[in-house]
Amino acid sequence: MNQTKFCFACSQSIDARAEICPKCGVRQTNPPIVGEKNKLAAALLAFFLGGFGIHKFYLGRIGQGFLYLLFCWTFLPAFVAFIEGIIYLCSSDEQFARKYG
């Protein structure tokens, strides 16, 4: 049985093993992952409000956000959030979208 897929450029049904669409000639690669969250916004929240876990709430990690709030008086969450902000900025857009959506 021959499996098919759709060309992401022209929506033509093509063989699943095809690397190039015979109709439009576009190479079939996996389309890039696009997330809903902005990594720059997450990084800025981590830098400026990270001690309170605001960046975790933004990224949908509610439990971790409450943990940051619980320990905000120790300044340890602020230090960890600063490191996380750097990690967010250093990761590629695709890695960030894959991990945080």
UniProtKB/TrEMBL annotation:
<dbReference type="InterPro" id="IPR007829">
    <property type="entry name" value="TM2"/>
</dbReference>
<dbReference type="GO" id="GO:0016020">
    <property type="term" value="C:membrane"/>
</dbReference>
<feature type="transmembrane region" description="Helical">
    <location>
        <begin position="66"/>
        <end position="89"/>
    </location>
</feature>
<feature type="domain" description="TM2">
    <location>
        <begin position="36"/>
        <end position="86"/>
    </location>
</feature>
<feature type="transmembrane region" description="Helical">
    <location>
        <begin position="40"/>
        <end position="59"/>
    </location>
</feature>
<keyword id="KW-1133">Transmembrane helix</keyword>
<dbReference type="Pfam" id="PF05154">
    <property type="entry name" value="TM2"/>
</dbReference>
<keyword id="KW-0472">Membrane</keyword>
<keyword id="KW-0812">Transmembrane</keyword>
<protein>
    <recommendedName>
        <fullName>TM2 domain-containing protein</fullName>
    </recommendedName>
</protein>
